[in-house]
Amino acid sequence: xxxxxxxxxxxxLLLACSTETASSFKKSDGGxxxxxxFEEVVDSGLExxxxxxxxxxxxxxxxxLKGTTYAPDGTLELPGAVIYLSATLPTDEPRGAVCDTCxxxxxxxxxxTSKIDGTFELNVFAPGKQYLVVEKGRFRRVREITLxxxxxxxxxxxxxxxGANNPSVGDYAPKILVIPTSMSAYDNVHQTLSSLNFDFDExxxxxxxxxxxxxxxxxxxxxxxxxxxxxxxxxxxxxxxFDPTVKSRLKDYVKSGGRLYVTDYAYEYVRQxxxxxxxxxxxxxxxxxxxxxxxxxxxxxxFNATTRSGTWEDPGLKQWMGVVGNRxxxxxxxxxxxxxxxxxxxxxEDPSGASVQITPKIWxxxxxxxxTVTFPDKCGRVLFSTNHTEGGAGGGGLxxxxxxxxxxxxxxxxxINGNIDK
Length: 422
Known about the structure:
This protein is α+β, with helices and mostly antiparallel strands. The protein is 14% helix and 26% strand.
């Protein structure tokens, strides 16, 4: 199971739920909500790790542990991560698409969730060596730490979530697949992921199509990235998005717990399987895309890039953008080639298969229209964004829109609670 946390669009999709020792949790009696809007576990004094110091005489804390959680790059503060102490190593978890559920950690460990600026504080009940676990979705870092009575400070290296899987050193990360854009100048999300220290596989051409048609290969990955131009940069009206087998495999992948990331020109990967969730404007703004996947194919692609005024619609994202050095009121969004008209509530499935009403969540708007949108489908999630990451095009640093994508990706990687993105 996984924890619920926030990091811009790209980062959100990346974090998810798993087992009882994982970072996802539900607020229960005694829980609180911190100033970042995340559900927070309050120490109940039950099942407290003993450490090296022997048996605890009481459930009274002997000290505190403070620190700041970071994304894998070690610089972007990470809100909503779950931090806890354990006397034993957590169990390993699947790295591919799985149907995760949230876990309640209340009463099981000394735990906390990081605030909007990544800071946290949790109680220490025993001195000596214990395991410090930091998780966001299925991105986890485990480090042995020696605690004492009084104030303790966690090293930044211990509280930076892992972007690459290396269990031998206590780093655990899900598998990510990137199918790079065929347009080398646009939406090079693999460059952004690399700059943030996320590890991933990359497939192109025939190997990519083979994977997209495989009934099992896609499920090896927790995240699949299909950036702008992946489908058909020439007309948007042909390409793998329309292949019946590819459509079926992607639908099954998401329902099985996969996180699917799609941007701009590749929008037909979303519309073909989920035609009623998002409506795109036709490129001449004469109307909106049909609910029929066989009609209006590729008509949303506008071959003239635009820069639009962006606003952060999610309260946590809005606060976090201020923390990482951007304007909370919003920033210009560059390189947009498609326009979303609206999102709609549709009938779908929750993780148990029961019928539920699903309303796509709008994280970012561009010129007042939805720009970054997510929605769940049974055990997985879909993220679509009209704006690109641009692969670090912001003069050596991340563009505001890249940070927003990172935040959202990490958010949607967390456990699904009621099949509603919040």
